[in-house]
Each structure stands twice: as structure tokens, then as C-alpha cells.
Amino acid sequence: MTKIETGASVTFRKTMTVAEQGFYTGISGDMDPLHVDRVKAQAAGLADMAVFELAAGSLFSTAMARLSGPGWRIESVSLRFVRPLSVGETLAATATVASTNGVITFDLAGTCGGEKVIEGEARLGRVAADV
Q1: How many separate domains does the chain show?
Q2: Extended strands (E) in 17-113
Q3: Which CATH number belongs to the domain containing residue 65 in this structure?
């Protein structure tokens, strides 16, 4: 088992794309015009369609998995979206280990161009007690 150190962090960066919007729409069934209609999103003041918040938030799972290794699952996640993200923006999703007392807790911070756009916390627990 890998030793997980408090304070360790991983950042996963990804540019959110139109193709991913389509995939997420298919998975979720969410047809909110701000997420699927560029004209309506721009009329609302966005540069492009709004990225699905949960799709953006899913980038944190990659960062957490890279820190924890196999055998862990998400028990809880709390995210606050400071502002909408637009398709084409690159999100840097950083997970920092806050504690490791039988579970792993993380502080989460998402930035675009150095601006904090998401903040939160998460908790991972073991998939099975004997793992």
C-alpha cells in the first residue's frame, strides 16, 4: 500500500470541450439551454456554453485517484462553483490531502487562468476493509 502524506497534492488539467458537453448531455439527460445552446449561453453573458458543473467537478476524482492509488472510493464530495466555466476554458483541478485517519480527506481547488472557480472537499474510504 502506498503511503499517503498529508499535504501531498496533484493537479489534473483539462480543457473542457464541446464534444464532452455532448457526451455529458447523453449521460445525464440535462438539456439546460446554458449548457447546450451557445446562442442562449452567450445571451446570458457567457463566452460560450456553460460547462456542466458535475463534469468539471469530476476532474477532481482523477487527482484524488492519483494520490490514493487503488482500493479507494468516493464517500462524499462537496463543491462550490464560484462562477460558471465556459466550454474552451482549461480547468486545473487540485486535490490536496488534508488528513489520513482511516479515510482520506481532501481539500479541492479548481482554477482557470489562476482564478479560483471551484472549491470544496472530499472524502475517500476503502472499497473493502481488507484492501
Answers
A1: 1
A2: 72-81, 90-100, 104-112
A3: 3.10.129.10
